[in-house]
Design brief:
Layout (H helix, E strand, L loop, with lengths): L1 H14 L2 E6 L1 H5 L12 H4 L2 H4 L2 H6 L1 H15 L6 H12 L2 E6 L5 H5 L4 E3 L2 E8 L5 E3 L17 E5 L8 H13 L2 E5 L11 H7 L3 E6 L11 E4 L2 H4 L8
Parallel strand pairs: 1-2, 1-7, 2-3, 7-8, 8-9
Antiparallel strand pairs: 4-5, 4-6
Helix pairs in contact: 9-10
Bound molecules: ligand BJW and zinc ion (ZN).
Length: about 240
């Protein structure tokens, strides 16, 4: 059954000139990165409002940085998996390809993805709360109160709850969703907005929507095809024959 679905999607990918992909934490789960929700998820042990919110950073920046130092230390040991690599291959083969990721782990760029919007930011980037300067910083651990040359406090370049996404990222994402023939959704629970609405944007303009996930989620009921399985097993099988 799954094999038939995979073959059908592979056939469509062989023909298409326009593919948009939306990924979530599930694609990195196969690299050993914890997801957010579910029994083993990060939010099982940490409350989002205490760590991933502008209010938390205002009140206890040391605690927030301690948490990010811990995550950076763990992520530094993780590598892209076969699913990340397969998406790089799809980018090479499909004329108009855009990858929208909610992941902040940097594993898509590490694999070699270029046509990419990291809509929730990147854990390896820091931003100054005073002058706004953004830069890559891979130091582990960072001081619990890291400062910019201008004297301002640095924060992780990550979109926390209640914060707006970068307008450029949003513009690019909507352009990709509104023009794609196929939307492939991999490993997201589909509960965090605005990404949770992306599937319907693509579906409403006539895109064929496929999801790959280990379990049923809010997207499942209206997608055109739902492939159940682990990203690292399924996504490489979707590659059209060379
Ligand atoms: C596998 C697998 C394998 C496992 N293979 N699959 C009420 C209604 C509507 C909206 C709101 C509302 N109240 C508040 C809001 C807005 C809020 C929101 O959406 N909240 C909802 C929770 C309700 N959104 C925002 O605040 C956003 N900003 C915004 O909307 O601005 C305007 C605005 C502001 C205020 C009010 C209203 C509007 C910003 C959201 C930023 C989210 N950032 C986070 C945290 C980053 C912190 C950090 O990482 O350091 O980003 S939240 C967290 O969830 C993280 C993720 O990117 C994001 C999505 O999670 P994802 O990727 O789906 O992971 P999981 O764990 O949920 O799911 C994993 C999936 O993988 C599961 O389905 C598994 O089955 C699957 N899986 N292994 C394939 N091997
Ligand atoms: Zn600064």
């Amino acid at each position: 059954m799954q094999e038939t679905l995979i073959q059908a999607v592979r056939g469509r990918l062989e023909e298409t000139e326009s593919l948009t992909v939306l990924t979530g934490a599930g694609i990195s789960a196969d690299s050993g990165v914890p997801t957010f929700r579910g029994p083993e998820g990060l939010w099982k042990n940490f409350r989002p409002e205490e760590l991933a919110s502008p209010g938390a950073f205002e009140q206890t920046p040391q605690l927030v940085w301690e948490w990010y130092n811990w995550r950076r230390e763990s992520l530094a040991t993780k590598q892209p998996n076969a699913a990340h690599v397969a998406l790089v291959e799809l980018e090479k083969r499909v004329k108009n390809f855009w990858l929208i990721t909610q992941n902040v782990d940097g594993l898509h760029p590490a694999a070699g993805s270029r046509n990419l919007s990291e809509i929730h930011g990147n854990i390896w980037h820091v931003r100054c709360t005073a002058c706004g300067k953004r830069e890559i910083n891979r130091t582990i651990p960072l001081p619990l109160l890291p400062y910019c040359q201008c004297g301002g406090l640095l924060r992780p370049h990550i979109v926390w709850f209640g914060e707006s996404l970068d307008p450029e990222d949003l513009k690019q994402s909507f352009q990709a969703l509104e023009s794609c023939e196929i939307l492939l959704i991999i490993g997201t629970s589909g509960v965090v907005y605005p990404a949770a609405s992306f599937a319907s944007v693509a579906k409403n303009q006539g895109a064929f929507v496929v999801e790959v996930n280990v379990e049923v989620n809010p997207h499942s009921e209206f997608v055109d095809m739902s492939i159940q399985g682990r990203a690292k097993d399924v996504v490489p099988q979707l590659l059209p024959c060379p």
